[in-house]
Specification:
With 128 residues, this protein is an alpha+beta fold. The chain contains 3 helices and 3 strands.
């Protein structure tokens, strides 16, 4: 998965890819510094799902999901431009199981919690 809203166009993911399957198109930002990402393509005929592109990203905009099932009728269909996809398609929201999403947001209870230490007895009063 790829989040275009946070990508800064640094090319670190593309440089880390051992099979060169990530292609980034960008242009200078006219309203400030940095770049605007106009294209972010991943060629899934080359990708080996090694996740080496995930760690170098400074803004965490690329993620490895659990869906590795890509199918199409031509090789051109395996090159996906995430910058051209609607955000709900790029993030895979339509394919998520609503029950699994609900369960994943629950905060689990701790398995064991250390009980508090018992209070220490007060010192004995001196005998008179």
């Amino acid at each position: 998965r790829f989040d275009l809203t946070t990508c800064i166009g640094c090319d670190k993911c593309a440089r880390a890819c051992p099979v060169d399957c990530i292609y980034i198109d960008k242009e200078k930002n006219p309203h400030g510094k940095g770049f605007l990402v106009t294209g972010f393509k991943i060629d899934y005929t080359k990708c080996m799902f090694c996740a080496l592109c995930v760690d170098p990203c400074p803004v965490d905009c690329i993620f490895m999901g659990s869906t590795y099932d890509q199918s199409c009728f031509s090789r051109d269909g395996c090159v996906i431009d995430y910058a051209k996809l609607p955000l709900e398609v790029a993030w895979g929201q339509a394919t998520l199981n609503p029950t699994a999403v609900y369960e994943s947001k629950k905060v689990p209870l701790p398995v064991w919690v250390k009980p508090p230490d018992p209070p220490k007895p007060a010192p004995a009063a001196p005998a008179a």
